[in-house]
Amino acid sequence: MPIINVSVTGKPNAKLSAAIAKEVTEITAKELRKDPTITAVAVNYIEPQHWFAGGKSLAEHGANTFWLDIKVVDGTNTKLELEAYLKAIFEAFGRLLNGVHEESYAFVHEVPAAAYGYGGKSQEFRFISGRLKAA
Questions:
Q1: C-beta atoms surrounding 78 within 10 Å
Q2: What crossing angle do the helices spanning 14-32 and 79-96 adopt, rounded to 10°?
Q3: What 3-state DSSP class applies to 119?
């Protein structure tokens, strides 16, 4: 886990989506220590004429952009890890999209463990269950 939603400018491209998912999963594992086997990535495409920065479309800017939205359990990462993650993500999308507009964003939501989970079980449940098994 986590779930990562990515939006990029351009037309849908399966090869680019796979490259984005791979790179984002690897960076998330390295910088935030998240298990890549349970990391989910969804990639969406938006035509540049429908994405605006500073009142002008990205088509007018002649640039690409991205928005990455990731949810992780609060308290599982330090500020330095988050800083490194944001930097690595911006650099990766610069490579993947052949440059990006400065107003490209990544947002890390830190959510309570009791309110976040997968497979019908919260992360808090998984943490407590793991501690009980260890005891």
A1: 10
A2: 160
A3: coil
CA 39/CA 26 separation, integer angstroms: 10
Check: CB of residue 81 under 8 Å from CB of residue 89. Answer: no
Query: Among residues 5, 83, 74, 76, which one has the least CA distance to residue 45?
Result: 5
Q: Which of 6, 130, 21, 128 is nearest to 71 (CA)?
A: 6
Question: In this structure, what token pair is assigned to residue 54?
Answer: 């500073």
Query: Token digits for 13?
Result: 């491209």
> pTM here?
0.91
pLDDT at 30: 98
CA 130/CA 115 separation, integer angstroms: 18
pLDDT tens-digit readout, 91-119: 999 999 999 999 999 999 999 999 988 89
What CA–CA distance (Å, rounded) separates 90 from 87?
Answer: 5
Domains belonging to the chain, first-starting first, are: 3-134 (3.30.429.10)
